[in-house]
Amino acid sequence: MNEKPSESSADSGAASSEEPSRSFRTVSKTLCRFCGAPVQAVFADLGMSPLANSYLPPERANGMEPFYPLRALVCGKCFLVQLEEFETPEQIFSDYAYFSSYSSSWLEHSRRYSELMIERLGLGEDSHVVEIASNDGYLLQFFHERQIPVLGIEPAANVAKVALQKGIPTLVEFFGRETARSLASESAADLLLGNNVLAHVPDLNDFVAGMKILLKAGGVITMEFPHLMSLIDDNQWDTIYHEHFSYFSFLTVGRVFEAHGLRLFDVDELPTHGGSLRIYGCHAEDAEKPETSAARELRERERAAGYEQLDTYLGYGRRVERDKRQILSFLSDLKEQGLRIAGYGAPAKGNTLLNYCGVGRDFIDYTCDLNPHKQGHYLPGSHIPIRSPDALREDKPDIVLILPWNLKDEIVEQLGFIRDWGGRFATRTPELTLLS
Fold it and tell me: Which of 9, 234, 300, 400 is the most exposed place for a label (fewest CB within 10 A)?
């Protein structure tokens, strides 16, 4: 079980967990992965689903496939939205199908980030940049090109191999206190970063405590992750899947860092992944980094929106159910018109949508993905085949359903040729609709 932080750090500004009787679904007692309080309130119940990145090779297409409850809970004490843990990180991430470098817009985002950090922090040849969950070296390569020493920490050996081939030093290991202690004497970080990893960590306290150990005095942490406020406001329930153990507001993530001797002093609100935060952290005792107006404003905005009140989180599941009905109605109407639908992309969010809505090859003939590691496989649960994008030119479907809606502009530009035969795009915006 996770280490339990002090009561004062987890409970700051929080409503009491002693809630009156309510007409919402509860589950058997689960302990919050941050503060250790009993968690029973259901934020969203998406039924039973396979692991979102467990793509099936052809030889396993007719075999048994494990399904697990996909249910997001909310802690009434610290307001961390979280999933129960059914599979270990080793099972999920040790051989991973996601390679960051296949998205040109994500590469450009990473390049701009590197330039910003080099200028803002004055990084140079005497600095050290460490990335947790460094994937295929998609980001560290930009620091490496500027002769800034880097180290990647990546648990998926198949993905880390690609980074090593790029000349990016990469440690194949999960990150936490133990790894941080082994690295701290020689590899302490001036900049310690992680993009879309904080949500993937079941032992949240061990992970954040490790960052405290590995960060140099005067150093800076940046973490990027999808913003819970965007998930709720824009109905992004398809970003809920088993590989995402936690969903953060700025208020709650600040408490997590504070519990481990770290302090958030700045934040950027980003458009990536439908709305993300980039948080900036430092040692709590670092007096050289005052809190910015952006950090104060976001904290106040979340508080005013009710993110420290349990009622804010309850009832979201009904919105999800309404969206499911809209999606099925939309796809049914297209099929009743005799139109053929192909998908584009094989993202985790697409698998959540397809499995929750019960959409298979009765609606979507196949999907296409640039990632050759996914091509020739089948989507988990729905068993929709994954092909090369070349299949679209050959097959000429009437509708291309963009599953990674956060990349829709990039994909529409890449696949503009489908309009040559009168093809149209559909995607969630946030309702599923045809694009003009």
Answer: 300
Label the pairing between strands 189-195 and 215-226. Answer: parallel
- Residues whose CB is less than 8 angstroms from the CB of residue 125 and which lie 6 or more positions away in sequence, other chains included: 147, 148, 149
Length of the chain equals 436
- 370's tokens: 């640039």
| 344: its two tokens | 């584009």
Looking at residue 102, what is its pLDDT? 61
Give the chain's largest Cα–Cα span.
Answer: 65
The per-residue pLDDT of the chain, averaged, comes to 91
| pLDDT tens column, 51-76 | 998 999 999 999 999 999 999 999 99
Contact between residue 366 and residue 347 where contact means Cβ atoms under 8 Å apart: no
Helix (H, G, I), strand (E, B) or coil at 298: helix
Task: Indicate if 330-434 has the same CATH topology as 100-312.
Answer: yes
Quick check: helix, strand or coil at residue 4?
Answer: coil
Domain 330-434 annotated CATH 3.40.50.720? yes
* In the chain, domain spans: 100-312, 330-434
The amino acid present at 353, given as its one-letter code, is: L
**DSSP readout, 144-185?**
HHTT--EEEE-S-HHHHHHHHHTT--EE-S--SHHHHHHHHH
Say whether pLDDT at 27 is over 80: no
> How far is residue 6's CA from residue 35's CA, in Å, rounded to a whole number?
8
- Structure tokens, 51: 């692991």
Higher pLDDT, 297 or 272: 297
pLDDT tens-place string over residues 335-381: 999 999 999 999 999 999 999 999 999 999 999 999 898 999 999 99
Q: How many CB atoms lie within 10 A of CB 425?
A: 20
Query: Do residues 201 and 210 make contact, with C-beta atoms less than 8 angstroms apart?
Result: no
Q: For residue 103, what pLDDT band results from cuts at 50, 70 and 90?
A: confident
112 and 175 Cβ atoms separated by less than 8 Å: no
Architecture of domain 100-312: 3-Layer(aba) Sandwich (3.40)
Cα–Cα distance measured from residue 100 to residue 85, given in angstroms and rounded to the nearest whole number: 25
- CA distance linking residue 355 with residue 46, whole number of Å: 9
